[in-house]
Design goal:
By secondary structure, the chain is α/β, with parallel strands linked by helices. The chain is built from 37 helices and 14 strands. The strands form three sheets. Strands 1-6-2-3-4-5 form a six-stranded antiparallel sheet. A six-stranded mixed sheet has the order 8-9-7-10-11-13, sandwiched between helices. The protein has a two-stranded antiparallel ribbon with strand order 12-14. 44% of the residues are buried. Bound molecules: guanosine-5'-diphosphate and magnesium ion.
Length: 824
């Protein structure tokens, strides 16, 4: 058998013009995945187009196409050479047939497996039972660091088992740990069999998280399962396996139980059978993930490195300050830069957390384990052995969890609006003072109008929400930094699953009440695409704070009683729409996807003010950018569309009237001023109606007519495409209230209350009734989010989902407002 095994060759050994068949791909998961996507799957025939000794890359023909691989990549593809004659007739049809079997021969049927686990978890017992060998069972002395090899026959596979020394971790510097780590990275077994002691899961799974980081193909034997059962503990193995992304088999290796099943799973994983593995990451939290990404970017620059190692794994280890990895990357091109970036990032993290980076990484790993166990593990009789997360048992308790969560949310929103009211007032004062100054010191004319009515009024109105947004983000950051948000996501998980979502979507939703843009960015913490897309397209239904002024204006104008109830109903409607949408889209677009991921429960930390401010700032930057760009530009454009054209016969008639009245001394001063003021108001109303935006509004008015909206409302809605904050200021201009256009302005309230239909069937009747006002609020809640949010959706989910969102939200808004209008 041995000599056949030694005949293994790699793709890099095959000469120009010769044929071979792919046997397997060694190396870490994402590398294998990439090659498999290129067509290098087991059984596939490859012809070498060109391979000269020093040539790099090498060119191949596979599946009727040409691909080139770097030499380092080709060395990871194990093949058997076949001669031209056989190759001519050989055709791979996607399944391993007898012919393929014959060609690949016994070579391909050998699977090299490394047994990795804590000391005394039963590796040697497993090894002995499986191989029939008699290795010494018992405490490993640790003097000789070595491995034993034995074989197990399963169907026509030969499974080569290597019994490695026991280790608790792969990061410390004991000889055993180094040995095991180097065995995995240098010897590259086809698969790692992680043996874990089921009676001491929390500690055993730490090693597992490191194997997950290394991204090696894996099967887990949950050994000492008899002990677990004896303790009366319960473990949901199927769910745990789903969460971790590899098969988990209960075993009692001292009695040889479960060995066959382990082998069966090893073969299935080795053959890449559908549904046996999925790629899982331990999520290290926003700060660490950012640092990991930065280091990864540098490591990726050397293709040799990224084909040999998982760059994510190296980045995590470098961040944690692993001396051996720092040494290991020394032989690659970008080692210097990688070291520098890694130590910068490490310093950054340590400054933020005031803790050693290695400890923070380990803490995050335990968070992953805790999350997985809280979902799957129930302690039996011996309560003293309760894993160390009793606080979590309360915060995520079936009954206690929700009231606690609701209290925190209530507190957060309460703070946002009560604390925010003060700076909001100051900002409003500041902008009206600025407007006043500009009014006084600038000469009359277009520049002054642009500055006062356009930029200062528009941007000022938006700026006054900045304090609310900042405070909301501050509280969200604090809740995230303490670790509570992860618990909130955990208890929301079951509920969110009902709507086809993941508990982690809860965090973007909460942020969405502030602003959709950072909320959409926050969906990056969701591991799978389905959850991400569903969350992204439903986040806009969480009523963002920019919509609030519209509600406040209309509610205070038309609802004297139950104002809080009306407001709450709007927010709830948004949530209901999100649920319904998510369910529908899931049914239609993601029918067969059912994935579960671990909800990490990071360690509780006392948040520092500094970190909370940094995180608040991260989230707010998007919003600030939107103000400086989109809103500013939109304000100017809307102002201009409203401002021009300046003249029409009717406007000129008003102007003439005003002038003649001003020169008329027969009327007493007071009533003359009053008349002039009235005429000026009428003139600006006439001017707006005649302006470009007014004409456009009238043009699209029929679309809004079935909803009971007049053309001014239509125009306000359209201006809200740019940003929802603009809706109220547009209404201020269009309903020509003479006071500042803000939601507290009772003048604007009065003028919309008094506004009558000027034409149509209802002429003379008030435009706004409570029903129309409610319909308008619902429309504002549901329609097209805003350009900034749409841009974020395009970036995170792609054009298809962006287009979907644009049409879906607007259609839904129209239908909802139409239904409401039926009650009028
Ligand atoms: P290793 O250090 O991982 O190689 O572990 P060993 O195979 O040497 O086993 C350590 C001890 O655990 C021995 O006394 C075994 O008999 C015992 N053991 C191994 N597997 C099991 C199991 O599934 N159940 C129980 N109850 N004991 C086991
Ligand atoms: Mg042993």
């Amino acid at each position: 058998m041995e000599e056949i095994i030694d005949k293994r060759q790699t793709l890099a050994d095959i000469k120009t013009g010769e044929y071979c068949v792919v046997v397997s791909i060694t190396g870490h998961g994402s590398f294998r995945h990439r090659l498999m996507e290129m067509g290098f799957v087991r059984g596939e025939k490859v012809r070498v187009i060109r391979n000269a000794p020093l040539r790099d890359p090498i060119e191949y023909e596979i599946m009727q196409g040409h691909v080139s691989l770097r030499r380092v990549e080709a060395e990871r593809v194990e093949v058997v050479p076949i001669d031209t004659e056989i190759a001519g007739n050989y055709m791979f049809h996607g399944t391993i047939t007898e012919e393929t079997d014959r060609i690949i021969g016994r070579v391909g049927k050998k699977i090299r497996v490394a047994l990795v686990g804590n000391p005394n978890c039963g590796k040697t017992s497993f090894f002995n039972h499986a191989t029939g060998m008699r290795e010494k069972v018992g405490n490993y002395s640790g003097v000789t660091v070595d491995s034993k090899t034995g074989y197990f026959k399963y169907k026509d596979y030969t499974i080569e088992l290597a019994d490695l020394p026991g280790t608790y971790s792969l990061t410390e510097y004991t000889p055993e740990e180094l040995y095991v780590r180097e065995y995995i990275t240098e010897q590259r077994p086809d698969l790692v069999l992680n043996i874990a002691d089921a009676s001491n899961l929390e500690r055993n799974l730490f090693l597992t998280t490191q194997l997950i980081d290394m991204n090696v193909p894996m099967v887990m034997a949950l050994n000492m399962y008899d002990e677990l059962e004896k303790n009366g503990d319960k473990l949901d193995i199927a769910t745990l396996s789903e969460l971790f992304g590899f098969p988990i088999v209960p075993t009692v290796s001292s009695r040889g139980k479960g060995i066959e099943e382990v082998m069966e799973n090893i073969v299935n994983v080795y053959e890449n059978l559908e549904g046996y593995t999925k790629h899982v990451h331990v999520n290290y939290g926003q700060d660490l993930e950012k640092s990991i990404e930065a280091i990864k970017q540098v490591l990726r620059k050397d293709p040799r490195l990224s084909s040999e190692y998982s760059t994510r794994y190296l980045a995590i280890e470098l961040l944690a300050g692993d001396k051996n990895i720092i040494e290991l990357i020394g032989r690659y091109d970008n080692a210097e830069e990688a070291r520098r970036v890694a130590s910068e990032q490490r310093a950054l993290i340590e400054r933020q957390y005031k803790e050693d980076a290695g400890t923070i990484v380990a803490g995050a790993k335990y968070g992953f384990i805790r999350g997985a166990l809280l979902e799957t593990f129930t302690i039996g009789k011996d309560k003293s052995k309760q894993p160390a997360y009793s606080v979590d048992r309360i915060l995520t308790h079936k009954w206690l969890g929700f009231p606690i969560l609701i209290f925190f949310l209530w507190f957060m929103f309460q703070m946002t609006f009560t604390l925010g009211a003060y700076p909001q007032e100051w900002l409003e004062m500041l902008f009206s003072w600025l407007g006043g100054c500009a009014d006084r010191f600038l000469p009359d004319g277009i520049v002054k109008d642009l500055l006062v009515d356009g930029i200062i009024a528009g941007v000022g109105g938006v700026c006054s929400f900045l304090p609310n947004i900042l405070i909301l983000f501050f509280f969200i950051s604090v809740l995230e930094d303490t670790g509570y948000m992860a618990r909130a996501a955990f208890i929301m998980d079951k509920l969110m699953h009902r709507m086809g979502l993941h508990g982690k979507s809860f965090i973007p939703y909460i942020i969405g009440f502030g602003c959709s843009v950072p909320a959409i960015m926050a969906t990056r913490t969701l591991e799978n695409k389905k959850d991400r897309i569903l969350t992204i397209i439903t986040v806009p239904f969480m009523s963002c704070s920019a919509r609030l002024p519209v509600y406040l204006l209309l509610i205070s104008a038309f609802f004297t009683k139950h104002q809080g109830l009306v407001l709450t109903s709007i927010y709830l409607l948004g949530i209901v729409m999100a649920v319904v949408t998510s369910l529908i889209v899931k049914k239609v677009s993601f029918k067969n996807e059912r994935d579960q991921f671990v909800m990490e429960l990071p360690p509780y930390r006392i948040p520092t003010f500094r970190n909370a401010v940094i995180h608040m700032w991260d989230k707010s930057v998007q919003y600030l950018k939107k103000m400086g760009t989109v809103i500013l530009v939109a304000t100017v454009i809307i102002w201009a569309l409203e401002y021009f054209p300046r003249h029409s016969p009717e406007i000129d008639r008003y102007t003439a009237q005003i002038e003649s009245l001003a020169g008329d001394s027969s009327v007493d001063e007071e009533s003359r001023e009053e008349q002039i003021r009235q005429l000026e108001l009428d003139r600006s109303a006439c001017q707006i109606e005649n302006s470009y935006i007014g004409r456009f509004g009238k043009f699209v008015a029929p679309v809004f007519a079935p909803l009971g909206f007049d053309w001014q409302m239509g125009v306000s809605i359209i201006t809200g495409f740019a940003a929802k904050e603009i809706v109220v200021s547009s209404m201020g201009v269009l309903y020509h209230s003479d006071a500042e256009a803000d939601e507290n302005s009772s003048a604007l309230q009065r003028s919309i209350r008094e506004h009558k239909w000027q034409s149509g069937p209802n002429v003379g009747k008030p435009v706004f009734t409570p029903v129309v006002a409610y319909g308008f609020m619902v429309f504002i809640l549901l329609y097209f989010p805003c350009v900034a949010a749409i841009a974020a959706i395009k970036k995170e989910a792609g054009t298809k989902w962006m287009v979907f969102t644009i049409f879906y939200t607007t259609t839904v808004a129209w239908i909802a407002a139409f239904i409401i209008h039926l009650f009028a």
